[in-house]
Amino acid sequence: MSSPRHVLILGGNGRISRALTEILLKKSWSVSSVIRTEEQVKDLEAFGAGLPGKLNVLVRDLEKVDSQEKAAAIISEVNPDSVVWSAGMTVFRIDRDAAVHFTQAAVATPTVTHFLTVSYLGARRANAPWWTEEDWAGWNKVNSTFLARYYEAKVAADEAVITEARKRDGFIAVSVRPGGLTDKEAGGVLMGQTEKARGMTSRATTAKVVALLLESKNVKSRWLDVLDGEEDAAVAVERCVREGTECAEGEAIYSK
């Protein structure tokens, strides 16, 4: 019998991370959850109590992870087979810099096979070929105004998912890109190169998609957009994996 999977979740106290932690622990996987403060430890440990998997909670300041080496030290300490990035607080130091350092460190660690990050559907530098010009104008307005700093950080981190994953054969790096986040229960999805450029996605559904991608045997490195919809999430993930759906299409990094 193979050993249970071990996932390092960065930003473990967020609502998507907590939902993902519950899913993975119910599968009897091990989860190492990195959080910001000691005050969060007991609550998160209580959240995972009674589930069949093993939960280990670590307090680490991701804002101080300012190099690949520091990210690698945390990965080495935990020794996971997979890393999930769902953190964010200080836009450039965490959402961009620390995220990129962990992507690089995961690629450079032979025992890590998967790196998944949670971004958002509009984090791109060029119009998606399946969107209209009106769709792109709407995202440009959002990304250049109230989401401007967040946009610059997330698009840089998403680009690293593509460029860094190319450095190691067989390494899997996926950016899961939901729409506006809600606290609704997990449900169906609209996934891939969606006909809708904007919409809502529940955090529970986002976590479910991340878990399904961690389990997938044939997924390749890519971006995947996901909105609330009618298709069963497991069916949608299997379809996107089988068809090689790539939501980074249209970006400069996609063609390099």
TrEMBL record:
Give the residues annotated as coiled coil.
none
Boundaries of each NAD(P)-binding domain copy?
11-216
Q: Where is the signal peptide?
A: none
**Database matches in SUPFAM superfamilies:** NAD(P)-binding Rossmann-fold domains
Q: Which domain of life is it from?
A: Eukaryota
Query: What would be one Pfam family of this protein?
Result: NAD_binding_10
InterPro entries in the record:
NAD(P)-bd_dom, NAD(P)-bd_dom_sf
Task: Give the protein family.
Answer: Belongs to the avfA family.
Q: Which PANTHER family match?
A: FLAVIN REDUCTASE-RELATED, UPF0659 PROTEIN YMR090W
What is the name listed in the Swiss-Prot or TrEMBL entry for this protein? NAD(P)-binding domain-containing protein
